[in-house]
Amino acid sequence: MSIQIDEDKNDNNDEGNNEENPENNISEEEKLEISPEEKIEELEDKLLRTVAEMDNMRKRSDKERSEAYKIGASIFIKDMLPIIDNLQRALTSFVDDEGSDTKSFVDGTNAILRDFESLLDKTGVKTINPEGEKFDPNFHEAMFEIPSDEHEAGIILQVIEQGYVLENRLLRAAKVGVSTKKDEEKPN
């Protein structure tokens, strides 16, 4: 029995050598590796293709951004056209009537102003009218100081021009007059 087992081991070893050593089963063509020069050429080709693809993506996104801007601007301008038409009608009627009915002209102009403010509100533009608020240099531009005993220093008492904000981005600061404490007269 022991002899037979030893022979079986030898048979298994002979078969196992072929299975354990895969190099014996690989052909000569498979043994050849890619040369460093070929690898460099392959990587250069991949790099050039990637750069070209990125350049095309950049151009495409620039074109899409430009088109989106044009569409947004055209929508806003289209919404402004009725306001311009109303202003032209108001001026024409005022000139034709030789300015005889100023109240109707003022009423018409106020209606146009409301239309314009409605359009700004529709597009997300908010008005800054800070009268009575504390001066904030991030949203207000001080044009002059107003001496006052009734208000503490730094309160906005007069708005010269309203400011405008679009989605928390300042379009124009409000131009304002800010209170200061009156200087007491000094005795000589």
Description:
The chain has 188 residues and is of the alpha+beta class. The chain has two domains: 86 residues, Alpha-Beta Complex (Hemagglutinin Ectodomain, Chain B), CATH 3.90.20.20; 58 residues, Head domain of nucleotide exchange factor GrpE (Nucleotide Exchange Factor Grpe, Chain A, domain 2, Roll), CATH 2.30.22.10. Helices cover 56% and strands 18% of the residues. It is built from four helices and six strands, in the order ααααββββββ. The strands form two sheets. It has a three-stranded antiparallel sheet with strand order 1-4-5. The radius of gyration is 41 Å and the shape is elongated. The protein starts with a helix and ends in an 8-residue tail after the last strand.
| Distance from first to last alpha carbon | 135 Å
What is the number of domains? 2
Mean pLDDT: 80
Tell me the helix content.
55-70%
Radius of gyration: 41 Å
Oligomer: single chain
CATH class bucket of the largest domain: Alpha Beta
Major beta sheet summary: 3 strands, antiparallel
CATH 4th-level superfamily of the largest domain:
GrpE nucleotide exchange factor, coiled-coil domain
Q: Can you count the helices?
A: 4
Structural class: alpha+beta
The total count of strands amounts to 6
Shape: elongated
Major beta sheet, strand line-up: 1-4-5
Q: What would you say the CATH architecture of the largest domain is?
A: Alpha-Beta Complex
Spans with pLDDT under 50 lasting ≥5 residues? 12-18
Strand content: 15-25%
CATH topology of the largest domain: Hemagglutinin Ectodomain, Chain B
> What order do the SSEs take from the amino end to the carboxyl end, as H and E?
HHHHEEEEEE
